[in-house]
């Protein structure tokens, strides 16, 4: 059994290593741009989060004013991505000379690729755990699914779709910086302590009521 577990871990580790290498190869022509973009997303300078929110706000303001169809929006984003994919690597090659690529940058790119694959693995494990709950704890699976979908349906009926998209995109843009600067961990600890204290007080009240009865 231990040998089987070790083989499984080795296979999983080898699979992750292969994914990291594949991701790095795909980013080879973008590596300088990727590192510059990463510095913005993790807020290396104080104005970076403002720039992210400003860019998101301008984009969604234009979408609100122009009011294009979904097909037009998808086509425009696809067009922008195609043009950037064609032009930016050539521009980056002329702007950033190969001799300026240092060992520190190489290590930074390796860490970035590793973190992306690890986060992908965490999402897959989270989804697998949720799906496994359908077998191990059907009541909890049903309760979580119904509450989540009902909440999303209520939010979708209450707020404008474009506003919801703006909030979601802005949050995703700020998420790497919030995690890098410890904001996510701080909020998580606060929420955990709040829930623990709430449950503790509820148990105390229930115990007190039983004593009174």
From TrEMBL:
Membrane protein topology class: Multi-pass membrane protein
Give TM regions. 72-96, 140-156, 162-178
- Spell out the InterPro entries in the cross-references: ER_autophagy_membrane_reg (IPR052114), RETREG1-3-like_RHD (IPR057282)
The RETREG1-3/ARL6IP-like N-terminal reticulon-homology domain sits at 30-187
Q: Which GO terms describe its cellular component?
A: endoplasmic reticulum; membrane
Pfam families given in the database record: RHD_RETREG1-3
Location in or out of the cell:
Membrane
Q: Which domain of life is it from?
A: Eukaryota
Per UniProt, the keywords (alphabetical) are: Membrane, Transmembrane, Transmembrane helix
Q: What is this protein called?
A: Reticulon domain containing protein
Organism name = Asbolus verrucosus
